[in-house]
Amino acid sequence: MSPSIPLQEMIRAIRSARTQCEERGVIQRECAAIRAQFRQSDNGSRSHNLAKLLYVHMLGYPAHFGQMECVRMIASSRYSEKRVGYLGAMMLLDEKQDASLLITNSIKNDLSHSNQYVQSLALCTLACMGSAEMCRDLAPEIDRLLRASNSYIKKKAALCAVHIVRKVQDLGELFAPAARSLLAEKNHGVLHGAVILITDGVCFVLCMFQTVPELVQIMRSLTVSGYSPEHDVAGVSDPFLQVRILRLLRILGRHCETASDAMNDLLAQVATNTDSTKTVGNAVLYETVLTVLDIKSESGLRVLAVNILGRFLLNNDRNIRYIAMTSLQKIVNTDHNAVQRHRGTIVDCLKDHDASVKRRALELSLALVSASNIRSMMKELLLFLSSCPPELRSHTASGIFTAAERYAPSQRWHIDTMLHVLTTAGGDVRDETVPNLIQLITNTSELHCYTVHKLYRALLTDISQQPLVQVACWCIGEYGDLLLRGECQETEPVQVSEDDVLDALETVLQSHMSSPATRAFALTATMKLSTRITDNVELMFKIFKTGSGIQLRKFMIFFLLFLKNVLSPSVLRAAVLERMPVIEKNSGQSNGESAGAKTEPKIMVKPGETSPPQQPVNQVCDLLDLLGGSEGPAQPNPAQSTTAAGLTMNTSSAAGGDLLDLLGGFQPTPTLSVYEKNGVNLTLQYERQSDAVLTVTLTACNSTDSDISSFSLQAAVPKVCPQRRPSPHHRSVESGRRGDLDLSQSSSASLFTAFHPCPIQVHLKMRIRISYTVQGSAFQDMVQVDSFQGL
Amino acid sequence: MIRFILIQNRAGKTRLAKWYMQFDDDEKQKLIEEVHAVVTVRDAKHTNFVEFRNFKIIYRRYAGLYFCICVDVTDNNLAYLEGIHNFVEVLNEYFHNVCELDLVFNFYKVYTVVDEMFLAGEIRETSQTKDS
Fold it and tell me: Which residues are in the AP complex mu/sigma subunit domain (chain B) (predicted)?
């Protein structure tokens, strides 16, 4: 076994090892020697051995076997061993290790040691790695030290108390009186510790609000008088203490008027007197600004604070610009005008090299966009978008969209901007931009020609940006005829032929860069073009035979059949593939919006698909069936293949809601299904016509195969609501039909209508008795409706 | 509150690691590597502040060593920047023109200095005179 070498030698040996393997070899030998030495409990060189072990640990090698040695050395009486022992404890032990509990007693003894350095070691270790139990045990000791000892120990004890309070919140009250008394100390270190203790630990204790005058006094003495050379940093006396006091004042004054008043003068003084040429001065100024903005300060002071931030923005030092922007972000909503003054500088920061500065500048710029500066800001933002780092692109794009939506000076500008964004950063925009843009385009009917020309040109240049391609396909599908017209007021005329258009769509379909959604768009667009620009069915077929994917194949088969098999092709097809109506903006309906784009191709053909080639009379009923979502007997459609019908069934329920939105004529009133038995469904719809009148409609539906006869209905409401109603009709409800669904309450076709002059406050109840005969047997039932939701 | 203090050289070797928060050993190793990766790619054109997980790192480069302090997001950046400078000045005083090798061979003394100046995650000593 080689003799143990001194620490310096070992370090030199490790450093001179040329490869990782050699180094490991040296370390393993040393660790073996150290382990052997530990076992021997050799008195002389224990500290050296442990120091060596700690060095090895710093390099990243395991050193757990030293933990017990640390514990033993802490308990020894020699200072050098204690020192290394405590250092080892701080490096090797932490709360999770069991060995840490063993040192609690040693620490306790050392805290009352005569030598202050030993005491300080113990305090330090406790503050570094003290667990909650240790803290609880030793808290009274710390409290004692806080009161009666010299300032060297008090400093450390104060921070140790901070650690204890962070670990165990309840002990905060224990230290409160001691903390208060410490504020009267002269020693800066002690003051510092006391301020931190109050900030982190005990500021919630009520008596702390009375410390505000004391703190103000201390600050004043720091800033105005007292040049103490040992605490001076570049001309500012003890900036660290100043910063901490300001922070504490911020917390105390946050919700308290009186405290804020007491600090106003001081803050103004600090803000004006502090030298801002060096970083230290700026640090203090920054903290002052944060405090002013957080407490209930008077407006003059706030203006001063914002001006300081403005000055920071013009500073050459990037750090200071960065923190200025961080703070401005917080107040941009409340003090908007003040921040607007610095718009130019902020926009310049967009071009900075540092990515975090760019991000701050971007967020501030987006917050500062307003109706008056939208054009110039947008130019800057678009320029930024083309050169910004990729992680900021989607944020920028969505910010631009929101700003454009809110403040667009003209429709054309809006469309131009959105197109620009799509061409620059198309891949990073969010999903709902495509339907939003489509909705915007349909709303501006005078610009359809211009838009479709621009989009066509964009499509020709680049088909990799999916959102752009989707919008372009949609527009070409809708406004293809305008494209062929060739001349357009806003752009230069260009001759586009049918084949060009179809070729463009075919390229999109075939390209490997197109996602399935894009291909669906292209397919539907081609479909729509069959009525608009050409009747060339064979050309369509050729296109439809290309493309891949199960979902798309379903579409394609379906489109093909639609083209071939619909009996009166031109009329019906034209009706089905008509121009889309202007889409209403549905802000709250996320599934309506986001599904809207993708299910549009499916919605479009549904009215066509479900209308059977036979009686057009049935169309209305079937449409209504679809709306109601009833699973009623599906009209057999001999002309359509089963796959197509399957497609409808799948999508009807999902898109039923969308269909409602699209047709837009129906306001869904709240419905209540009150009775469902024996094939009779009774639903109730109520609507408040005015403050005093409530209209209730009862509808009965028969879903059995046979007729129901002798149907009678009676309803009663509480006497508080007088009602008038026509006498209920006795009707036979035939099978397969709804009993005269009528939402307008004007005709007598409804089964039962009651007008209740019913003031709002009255809680409406209704009892309904129905009797009917079905398949020869008579039924009689009574239903009570207790609550009408939404009233 | 300071979460940890790291002194690393450009190659990634740790010269000092002081933790004020509970981490496992492998977490500590990962943190060291991440901090090194984040800090060494930045040059003079960047700010001295980096957002790191849900904290932020305030760092400064002195010759071949990076002095990094990881603090909470709400702390005053400039004050900690000054704290780093204060600490380096004290080291300079203590070792008489300190260089990296001083930190290597006298690592336990460096720890003592750190413990004098920072405690429980806060700046403790603000004056530069040796015995206080």
Answer: 1-129
